[in-house]
Amino acid sequence: MKNQVALITGASTGIGKATAQKLALEGVKLILLARREPLLKTLQAELSELTDCHIIACDINDHKTLLTELNQLPENFRNIDILINNAGLALGLNPAHETDWLDWQTMINTNCLSLAFLTRQILPGLVERNHGHIINIGSIAGSYAYKGANVYGATKAFVEQFSSNLRSDLLGTAIRVTNLEPGMLNESEFSLVRFKGDESRADDVYAGLTPLNAEDVAETIRWILTQPAHVNINRIEIMPVHQALAGPTTIKN
Ligand code: 8X3
After folding, report:
1. If you measure from the C-alpha of residue 133 to the centroid of ligand 1, how many angstroms do you get, rounded to a whole number?
2. Does the beta carbon of 140 lie inside 6 Å of ligand 1?
3. What is the tens place of the pLDDT at every residue in 103-138?
4. CB proximity list for 115: less than 8 A, separation 6 or greater
5. Is 155 in the pocket of ligand 1 (CB under 6 A)?
6. What's the ipTM?
7. What is the pLDDT, as a whole number, of residue 251?
8. Residue 108 near residue 89, CB atoms below 8 Å
9. Which helix (H) or strand (E) holds 70?
């Protein structure tokens, strides 16, 4: 992987940050994309001792700015080899009829529309060079229903099917596509974002159990990327031991 170029979205915290740290150790050149510039700058300063690091401080839903940034990438970052579509979020855990429509819109925009938009921009270069790997960060929520996951789970089902369909379209090329589906994960702002900054509700999610760490997922990404060139890992589902599939739920009156 040394000297390959990886673009990581949602790079300032959680899985994105841990993956950047992991790939920097392998000598991968990094383009780190996230909204919060100060966090990106701190990470850039840390990783620049190990590899070349370019930051893009922009909201992934601002497609115009994103396009401008991609069009003016420095020369040594232009040929992207690895795209890690990690930016995404869950908002709320209310039943569908009590949710905020804007939350649904934000999740669909970020998790589906912007992931597809960025992928569409990067794909032609990968195909032209007949080389590369796209790793989409899906979720167990894309495969299994749970109460309150409504649109969040549906966006991750989109990511799963999009990944499979990309594989079909890219058949005949050397490009690899993987959908990585983590379960419950701490050390990210996932629950804090889901509960809109309510720290005690977010902490409560992890009380009394050991969730995955961002490092666990980053190590899985490193493993996926380092498989022999003829091997495509289609999907990986990864959960903490303390989480399992609950099965159908019933309620009695
Ligand atoms: C998030 C996984 O289990 O918290 O993508 O819904 S879970």
Report:
1. 24
2. yes
3. 999 999 999 999 999 999 999 999 999 999 999 999
4. 9, 85, 87, 88, 136, 159, 162
5. no
6. 0.92
7. 80
8. no
9. helix 63-71
